[in-house]
């Protein structure tokens, strides 16, 4: 697991998050299709340069698929409304695709250390940055505990055939065990002086690189261009 | 009534419960794959997440806890591919939810329930943004010469009247969820000593 | 210097856990607090690092002073600049996912510059060569490796005092010895080491003084030489494990019997390793210990035998009839290492009869009485103590009356007295119609109960 992503084609997490918000703009405003393709291809290029070749292809392929279904509305217009519902799903997917694509890029290429360092850099308050850090820390434990509980249920012969009891039997140990883990995490953090009022340094530093400027400028250009065209 | 600050233990609990909440919410949302049922999604999420949120509210009886959980959840939805509408909508909802919590001094079941009912409507934000984008959609549809019946049919589904229904369903679902949560608190969590 | 003066401590409305403890600990000393479970030794240690008051909600009388400061007046993070803590269960006590970040976490929090952090890192690596543990996913580390990381983090933080609460609890022999080496080096560097333990054999070269705690009071204080003179039987009487390492004396498996494991193959998904077992037979009515280094797949083997691992290829026969995974599930019971995963209902009595069709209430009540749980029958299982929860799990195993009974590390962290109790309980489960499998690295325990062992 590469903890320190020193890849020069990897923008820092703040930039990536901002892009997602910027691209939200394209959902509400018509952007010329060529410029939209430009954005998609830029993101695919970045996926590729960060070693995620499969993702690069998937990104462009799905966009193409969703884009093609919409023009075919004329053909299916005589189909019954139930099937039209499904096409609505495709249309919505198409509309939301650009921020989704940027979101995927953010999730796949950002490591936890950088995210936390970034939050510190833009002075996100502790009330938000600590819970977010804890979420990354807790999620793998959560998966493991859930697995253990399901195993225990299987041995006891508790099956999903009685759905309400099943949910009760899962949620109770899950919440109790999670509460206990929360206490342990808090103890570990406090005994390492997390509450110290001194300004914290971060071992992993987050820098603004060329790619950050390029990413933002290119996206902005394409959004504005697409709107004006 | 003093404003209690959130301590490290509380912030860790918020992180932990946000994970649990989001997972339960996500799994409940599987139902939403079928398009029309997606409109019932906030209501269903209200019912299923009641247990988690009622326990959470009982564990941290301080301001801002619920809001932080909601806002972080909205940020995750945003990172997964949504628009800033979801974030702004959530912040507004959280302000109202916090005020309700405060009114009940963070202890009263009645006010916690009402707070949760409002809180749950943040899930409607995702549908709201689609409704707001409806105009863009119509544009796109017209640009490709879609038939009038189709767009009218669509308008019928995603209109503001239905949106209000989605909100009301979300509130009702959350109230049911809150009562289930109260039941679990009494039957299990208070006895287990984790409150 | 740590000065404890007439310290009394209680949790909530319960009777006092510590009664008037007074002692001093000098700089650079290594002090061992030992005694039965529940004697109060953990509370003493938690009083020194400040957790007893802030996390466990204890009320204290008397004082604990570190370097002339009364810790009652200090915040937890202020105490933590003087005292580092190493906990019993490394599985949950960490905050970061990246091992390097977890190691340096304290240094980040006190605001050292990157240059200073790098210097300390280099200094620590000179002392403890743990480069192989750096920059990894902490979830992929074994318990022993996590504990090593934690002790290294305590060193790198530079605090004068390091407090350890039963650090060897979940570790195998190899890692206990590594921890011993680390503690020796820490002592050479002049750190004050305060340990609470009942598994004491690895500390006999390190401890300067030993305090025997009983019922919340200091029963006796020993120098190292005096303590070494105590015979093993007396130690066991006091609830302690032996002061010299105990070797496994159980004979190896003889491959007889009608429960045949002709083949088990399981490929681990995250490491390049396979679990292999071929042509091993077990006899009914016997208790088998499964031993091996931690991380090699003992728990996985249990899961394969029970039929829980979908991806395992197995050919397992009973009386020459092949048992599928679901067959084995039906005839198996498991007591897990963390019993919290297997408590589902809101009363002991319904918990114990859960999942068993048509069971008579009197049968259940008898089992509860045998395990000393009858008075607790209406209590919520999650509100019980750790030992009681384990007995509830064993009670439900007895109620289910399965042919195959599996235990996963049942004596983790237990003192001698409780370990022998579990040993007797498991003997009660023994029956000509059953096979009992126990995964354990507790040699004293296996010596007392297992008929044969199988090495992984």
Descriptive account of the structure:
The complex is a heterotrimer of chains A (229), B (195) and C (456). Chain A has 229 residues and is mainly α. In chain A, 74% of the residues lie in helices and 0% in strands. In chain A, helix 3 (33-49) packs parallel to helix 7 (97-109), helix 3 runs antiparallel to helix 11 (210-228) and helix 8 runs antiparallel to helix 9. The mean pLDDT of chain A is 84. Chain B has 195 residues and is mainly alpha-helical. Chain B is globular and about 55 Å long. Chain C has two domains: 2-237, P-loop containing nucleotide triphosphate hydrolases (Rossmann fold); 285-303 and 326-455, P-loop containing nucleotide triphosphate hydrolases (Rossmann fold, 3-Layer(aba) Sandwich), CATH 3.40.50. In chain C, 32% of the residues lie in helices and 24% in strands. Chain C has helices at 41-48, 51-54, 76-79, 99-109, 114-127, 143-156, 173-188, 224-228, 232-237, 298-306, 325-330, 348-352, 361-370, 386-400, 416-429, 443-449, and strands at 2-11, 18-25, 30-34, 58-66, 69-70, 83-86, 161-165, 192-196, 209-214, 217-223, 259-267, 274-282, 287-291, 313-318, 321-322, 332-335, 404-408, 435-439, 452-455. In chain C, strands 6-7-8-3-9-10 form a six-stranded mixed β-sheet, sandwiched between helices. At the A-B interface, helix 1, helix 2, helix 6, helix 7 and helix 9 of A face helix 1, helix 3, helix 4, helix 7 and helix 8 of B.
Mean pLDDT of chain A: 84
What's the helix count of chain A? 11
Biggest interface goes to: A-B, 64 and 59 residues
Considering the protein shown, what is the CATH homologous superfamily of the largest domain in chain C? P-loop containing nucleotide triphosphate hydrolases
Main beta sheet of chain C: 6 strands, mixed
Q: Report the structural category of chain C.
A: alpha/beta
User: In the residues of chain C, how many domains can be counted?
Assistant: 2
Helical content class of chain A: over 70%
- What is the CATH domain class of the largest domain in chain C? Alpha Beta
* Number of helices, where a helix is a run of at least 4 consecutive DSSP H or I residues of chain C: 16
Tell me the β content of chain A: under 5%
Indicate the multimeric state.
heterotrimer
Question: What's the shape of chain C?
Answer: globular
Rg of chain C, nearest Å:
24 Å
Approximate strand percentage of chain C: 15-25%
Radius of gyration of chain A: 23 Å
Q: Helicity of chain C, in percent?
A: 25-40%
Beta strand count of chain A = 0
CATH architecture of the largest domain in chain C: 3-Layer(aba) Sandwich
End-to-end C-alpha gap of chain C = 46 Å
């Amino acid at each position: 697991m590469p903890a320190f992503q020193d890849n020069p084609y990897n923008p820092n997490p703040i930039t990536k998050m901002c892009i997602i918000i910027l691209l939200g703009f394209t959902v509400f405003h018509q952007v010329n299709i060529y410029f939209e393709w430009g954005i998609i291809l830029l993101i695919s290029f970045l996926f590729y340069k960060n070693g995620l070749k499969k993702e690069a292809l998937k990104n462009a392929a799905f966009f193409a698929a969703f884009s093609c279904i919409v023009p075919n509305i004329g053909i299916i217009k005589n189909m019954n409304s139930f099937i039209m519902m499904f096409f609505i799903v495709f249309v919505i997917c198409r509309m939301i695709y650009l921020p989704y694509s940027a979101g995927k890029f953010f999730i796949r290429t950002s490591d936890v250390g950088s995210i936390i360092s970034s939050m510190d850099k833009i002075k996100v308050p502790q009330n938000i940055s600590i819970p977010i850090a804890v979420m990354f820390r807790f999620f793998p434990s959560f998966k493991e505990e859930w697995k253990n509980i399901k195993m225990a249920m299987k041995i006891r012969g508790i099956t999903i055939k009685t759905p309400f009891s099943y949910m009760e039997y899962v949620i109770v140990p899950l919440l109790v065990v999670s509460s206990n883990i929360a206490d342990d995490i808090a103890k570990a953090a406090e005994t390492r002086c997390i509450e110290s009022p001194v300004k914290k340094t971060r071992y992993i530093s987050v820098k603004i690189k060329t790619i950050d400027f390029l990413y933002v400028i290119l996206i902005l250009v394409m959004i504005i261009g697409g709107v004006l065209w | 009534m003093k404003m209690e600050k959130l301590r490290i233990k509380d912030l860790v609990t918020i992180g932990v419960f946000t994970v649990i909440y989001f997972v339960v919410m996500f799994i409940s949302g599987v139902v939403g794959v079928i398009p029309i049922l997606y409109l019932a999604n906030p209501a269903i999420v209200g019912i299923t997440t009641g247990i988690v949120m009622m326990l959470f509210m009982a564990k941290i009886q301080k301001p801002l806890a619920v809001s932080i959980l909601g806002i972080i959840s909205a940020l995750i939805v945003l990172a997964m591919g949504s628009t800033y509408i979801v974030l702004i909508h959530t912040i507004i909802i959280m302000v109202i939810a916090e005020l309700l919590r405060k009114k009940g001094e963070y202890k009263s079941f009645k006010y916690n329930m009402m707070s949760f009912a409002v809180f749950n409507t943040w899930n409607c934000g995702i549908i709201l943004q689609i409704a707001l984008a409806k105009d863009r959609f119509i544009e796109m549809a017209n640009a490709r010469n879609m038939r009038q019946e189709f767009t009218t049919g669509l308008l019928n589904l995603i209109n503001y009247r239905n949106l209000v229904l989605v909100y009301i369903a979300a509130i009702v679902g959350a109230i049911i969820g809150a009562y289930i949560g109260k039941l679990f608190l009494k039957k299990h969590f208070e006895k287990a000593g984790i409150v | 210097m740590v000065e404890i003066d007439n310290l009394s401590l209680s949790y909530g409305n319960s009777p006092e856990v510590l009664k008037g403890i007074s002692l001093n600990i000098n700089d650079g000393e290594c002090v061992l607090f030992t005694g039965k479970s529940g004697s109060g030794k953990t509370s003493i240690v938690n009083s020194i690092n400040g957790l007893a008051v802030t996390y466990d909600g204890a009320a204290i009388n008397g004082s604990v002073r570190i370097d002339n400061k009364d810790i009652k007046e200090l915040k937890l993070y202020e105490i933590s600049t003087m005292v580092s803590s190493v906990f019993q269960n490394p599985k949950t006590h960490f905050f970061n996912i990246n091992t390097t970040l977890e190691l340096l976490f304290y240094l980040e929090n006190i605001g050292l510059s990157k240059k200073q952090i790098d210097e300390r890192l280099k200094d620590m690596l000179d002392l403890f060569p743990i480069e192989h543990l750096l920059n990894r996913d902490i979830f992929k580390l074994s318990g022993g490796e996590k504990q090593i990381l934690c002790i290294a983090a305590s060193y790198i933080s530079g605090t004068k005092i390091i407090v350890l609460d039963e650090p060897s609890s979940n570790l195998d022999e190899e890692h206990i010895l590594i921890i011993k080496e680390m503690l020796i080096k820490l002592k050479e560097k002049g750190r004050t080491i305060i340990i609470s333990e009942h598994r004491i054999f690895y500390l006999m070269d390190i401890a300067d003084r030993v305090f025997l705690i009983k019922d919340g009071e200091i029963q006796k204080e020993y120098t190292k030489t005096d303590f070494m003179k105590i015979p093993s039987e007396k130690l066991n009487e006091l609830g302690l494990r032996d002061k010299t390492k105990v070797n496994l004396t159980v004979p190896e498996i003889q491959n007889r019997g009608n429960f045949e494991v002709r083949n088990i193959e399981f490929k681990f998904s995250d490491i390049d390793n396979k679990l292999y077992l071929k042509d091993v037979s077990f006899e009914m009515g016997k208790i088998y210990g499964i031993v091996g280094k931690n991380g090699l797949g003992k728990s996985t083997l249990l899961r394969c035998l029970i039929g829980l691992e979908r991806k395992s290829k197995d050919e397992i026969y009973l009386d020459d009839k092949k048992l599928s995974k679901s067959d084995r599930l039906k005839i198996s019971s498991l007591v897990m290492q963390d019993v919290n995963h297997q408590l589902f209902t809101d009363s002991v009595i319904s918990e114990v009869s859960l999942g068993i069709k048509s069971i008579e209430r009197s049968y259940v009540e008898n089992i509860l009485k045998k395990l000393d749980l009858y008075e607790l029958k209406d209590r919520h299982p999650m509100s019980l103590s750790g030992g009681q929860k384990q007995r509830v799990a064993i009670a439900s195993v007895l109620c289910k009356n399965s042919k195959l009974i599996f235990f996963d590390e049942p004596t983790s962290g237990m003192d001698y007295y409780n370990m022998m109790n579990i040993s007797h309980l498991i003997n009660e489960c023994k029956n000509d119609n059953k096979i009992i499998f126990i995964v354990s690295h507790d040699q004293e325990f296996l010596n007392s109960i297992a008929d044969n062992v199988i090495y992984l």
